[in-house]
Write a structure and sequence with these properties.
It is built from three helices and ten strands; from the N terminus they run αβββββαββββαβ. It has about 150 residues and is α+β, with helices and mostly antiparallel strands. It has a single domain, classed as Mog1/PsbP, alpha/beta/alpha sandwich (Protein Transport Mog1p, Chain A, 3-Layer(aba) Sandwich). The strands form two sheets. Strands 3-4-5-9-8-7-6 form a seven-stranded antiparallel β-sheet, sandwiched between helices. A three-stranded antiparallel β-sheet has the order 1-2-10. The longest helix has 17 residues. The radius of gyration is 17 Å and the shape is globular.
């Protein structure tokens, strides 16, 4: 009996911790997953913003003909220097339909990750940011999980 109660409690807690909601940015045929509790702040043709407890996710259209897959990382660093107080790390980060890069740093005292993505099919390019209150490895992993969930709706 104790084992059954333990397993039941474990699955209820695990479901609550890992519960997620699928979102669609219809204007650009994109879908992504955010943890439960996020509220949409803005949903326009150029920008989607949602905020959860201690985390904010924003994705924007980034139309710059000078940015290519080969110089994405450098272009993102230049953009990040405008907003991020201190860049601590950067690298490449590709998704199925997008080539990309990321920059990690601090923005207004909060840990921030900027992502830039070039559409491999030649469509719209995107810039995403995840801003979170906590500066720990779990928050960093959550940010990458959010961005890794971005996918095209075909």
């Amino acid at each position: 009996m104790k084992k059954t109660i333990f397993l039941l409690c474990f699955f209820v807690v695990a479901n609550a911790v890992f519960a997620q909601t699928n979102w669609i940015w219809k204007q650009h045929n994109l879908k992504f997953t955010l943890p439960n509790g996020f509220k949409v702040k803005k949903n326009t043709a150029n920008e989607f913003q949602a905020k959860g407890v201690g985390v904010e996710f924003d994705i924007f259209v980034w139309q710059d003909r000078n940015v290519t897959a080969s110089n994405m990382k450098d272009a993102l660093i230049v953009l990040a220097d405008t907003y991020i107080d201190h860049v601590s790390h950067y690298g490449e980060h590709d998704l199925d339909d997008f080539e990309g890069a990321y920059v990690i740093g601090d923005y207004k005292g909060k840990k921030t990750i900027f992502f830039g993505f070039i559409d491999k099919r030649g469509g719209t390019n995107f810039f995403a940011e995840v801003i979170f209150d906590e500066d720990d490895d779990d928050a960093l992993q959550d940010a990458f999980h959010i961005v890794d969930s971005i996918d095209r709706i075909d």
